């Protein structure tokens, strides 16, 4: 196969971030049980109150309805507050609850299920399950919390302890949670025979209490997740294994006491009736402890306090709904666990709450030294118990898999942003568990017929370069790039200058924030990639799978040879001033940088913006030099805002802590662009942090206040990327407490209006003669207003001046803001005339920046359009000059976009999406009379019209058909109506003015209901305008019900519409023979036989490439289908090229990337009458 010709691919396309739901990594053996239906086919053996709440007594687990164990009791909880549950909405119940404080309806219950089918341990085991505890009698624990009691345990046991085909009975009731032995229970204190490890979900707190069970533990720990190890302390086992100490003649009462003493001490007891010499040759009196230790279900690690690790207000608890009349499962806190035991005996445990980020309860540690070798096969079991206190204890799902494959690919989520340039594409990934990432470069190639594909073997993986060792992406090995060999820069917040990211260079405040003279010095080295202080090497910092952090919402941004459209002599056509830097000056800049190192920049949640080298071209700019195409890091930047947030008091957000769950740091896509000042051309890279920079974790609401931050780097010459040059490479960093605006903006308004910057800024030439960085004020600012920042760079000195153009539109109930700003060059002189932006409350704004005096740039008093019911706009607007097919007059200026919004995953909640119908819009900016009066570039205008257009003034298009298909990577086809737009002032719909009153179009997207969950299809990725087509990927949020064990991943359609009408194009944009082969047209109305959408589940902004044969392909990364026993759908907020989404898996969740799924789709562009006038590079 031959590579694509560079001349057809020299433009830079940055495909935006993926929205991914966690998908399973299928190992050799997978066992799963949803537990929500009428029966279970898995071979469980049940005891006590174990039953299915929607069961019908046809499987291995009995139905709760009619179960004799609960005779005379009300079975509370479930879907409606009382059982039974509807089929498909049930759970495995282990104990009953109560509706009264201190009631007895659910007291003294025990229930257990134990598998009878051995599961091999030779490849390790990964177990995922979800639990709820709710609806109890409010019995008080040792912290005086009305927690109910006691808890749930999941355990793994040695299958050789089966008696025939039946597993042994569970362990002691009460605080032992049916697993460990007890120190004083009657009539039995037996533990589980053959227990190897157990996870206790302990609302009351006694599972870790040696006063209640076993000899180890710190005492009571209410609301904790506690692990215990191996043991086989039962009366029968002690008598058969140690008859010397426990003779068969022992009475039942004495045997019970002997078991209790053995349990309480962890040593064998002499109950022989006489003094005896033990194995250590010690003389042991009757009824005394020997010196022979026995496996006693020892505590593993430290109990993990749910309240401390989640750090929410009010505190997150395992239990809830105590003593309420109708406790509901849907209101319970859902805990999902992932327990991994590798074949060499290393154990780790993570959990998530309500679909939130995975939280580490037990970091990777060896358990064979304390537990003995792994048994050949495991049995699985769940138990729960109540005493004087009660709770409903239920299991929602269970899954077990071998993890031989998971070692290389488990937890890998395709982040899906990619950049195409030359013959390489760049894919970013993240691993939800333990938070690490990858960035790969793969060849984009075409065969002799021009068919495009992506090489499945990467040229390099940046994580492998930084980490070293075997690299699965390339099939080779790497020597780790040394921490001291990296050029890592930062910003000193006191000196206000760029610095090396070294502890000694930090301000006093920053040194304190990062940990002080000893801890902070080690932590700085840890962040730079040093691993000597990780737990595995005897240190206190968490062990990392890889040095590169997870890349969730930042798209890779490629920078190579300068390629902006400034090669011809320029004149500002409004001011008639020449633009001296255009033409020869820029051509010289290009020539001088023809061999400039290609670098891929990407933000990661290790606290850094990274730059990785990706080859270079020769002096002609045509021959690729692959010698430096190796992914070596050439630059990294740690924003000062990250230093303030990477080591907070909450260990779940502390990046170096073994209890680290996840936080966002550098999570937005940076912008790059050429600009001129100080007598020379420069290339800058500018970006925000998206959800990053908040020490208290990501914000997923519209009421809290975030810390905003923006940084700028001069990346003109990669040869200058040294720590010694930090002061010149780092141009500045501005945050919401320190940003200062010029005198025409109040400083208090300026800094307090900056929120989390999700959108990718733009770099543009302005009519005042300066260049500017332009960006939206972002999410969750203190003022809650919507506005844009214009940071001009002085033409002579390079000094920056900031203005904030405030719309004043905000709400008392939800903060407003702007993510993306689009620039419009209406006369083609490469100077920005208007700026367009949409806000989170559905307003579309036009900012007039045609004046040569920047002090006159102000926000308009009213928006030009408002969406229905305030549908949020979180992506970029496309600005299209559309020449009507029925008119030879001036082109209409159509602003086309879509609505939708997503909120990031937190410790206690999954990623969520805005609800309600979302819509695609095309709005005519009719008010062009003033522009037409001063420019020869004319646009269609009318003398008067509505100041703010409403949806009632729009034509309506509809989705006519959605046809499912299994044609390759295409899941379905869509057709769209072709209704005319009766433009105001036109004769499209007749000669009467009353028949032509419309100002644009709308196309509503459908909603999908699965079970009790309704998801609204929406726009979270930036649309693009190409070949006169409005092209956008829609997102149908993944169905990842917290109360379900299955996850339907995010999907969506790639829509190709007419920007003039929003309806079907005259002919399909998608190549008919290949892309539409699975579609059989059935419609008879206009547009019904024209495919306007393909079910590709595309992520990010669509990108088009042209082969040497002239064929055009749609190239984008796509979601695969699958399900997961744990995980939550989770793109972060935003869209398009800034990083609209990623998904975050809950504990154990993940996605296996397979680039073969990203098959390019051929398209058939026609000369449709529209052009894009925003002139920004597509991202």
From TrEMBL:
One of its GO terms (molecular function) is metal ion binding. Residues 548-928 form the PilY1 beta-propeller domain. Pfam families: T4P_PilY1 (PF05567). Residues 1120-1131 have a biased composition (Low complexity). Residues 1132-1151 have a biased composition (Gly residues). It comes from the Bacteria. This is Pilus assembly protein PilY. Residues 1120-1179 are annotated as: Disordered. Keywords: Calcium, Metal-binding, Signal.
